[in-house]
Specification:
Elements: H1 2-18, H2 23-40, H3 45-62, H4 66-79, H5 84-109, H6 119-133, H7 138-147
């Protein structure tokens, strides 16, 4: 997680300015995250391979930039996602925040942008995912409410 926090600001600045994520930041993140995964282990190598294939499919079908795909994969590696539902929640959050970015740009300029910088959406989605991951479920809130009477 340290690598994500360390590289977040330079990646966001570069992506907003040039619509590119420099590989130097991604390689640095890969070294730190790879070392962390070697020391702590993987939950599922097979699932990471499926994530990589799905992300490549997202690149081909939806024309998401390859730098964004590599960044999302590194975040999946850092978070050590173990289930498809966790991966879908992360991707859905990224997509919703990217949609909000498109809508905000459309409201301010009046034109739909042909491309956006997705790094801010990716990092924001990661922080939202990390914040909501440890939150109790709605059922636990309902049980607490019923039991408090």
């Amino acid at each position: 997680m340290f690598a994500i926090y360390l590289c977040a600001i330079p990646i966001v600045i570069a992506d907003c300015k040039y619509h590119r994520i420099p590989n130097i930041y991604l390689i640095g993140m890969l070294y730190v995250i790879g070392l962390e995964r070697v020391l702590h282990g993987f939950s599922s190598m097979r699932f990471l391979a499926v994530c990589a294939l799905l992300l490549v499919g997202l690149h081909i079908v939806c024309r998401v930039g390859m730098g964004d795909i590599k960044l999302i994969f590194l975040i999946c590696l850092a978070l050590d996602l173990a289930s498809f539902s966790q991966f879908c929640i992360l991707l859905t959050t990224v997509a919703l925040l990217a949609l909000v970015t498109v809508l905000v740009q459309w409201l301010f300029t009046g034109d739909l942008p042909s491309s956006i910088a997705m790094a801010p959406s990716i990092f924001s989605a990661t922080w939202l995912y990390l914040g909501a991951r440890s939150a109790p479920l709605l059922q636990e809130y309902a049980d607490a409410l019923v039991n408090s009477w």
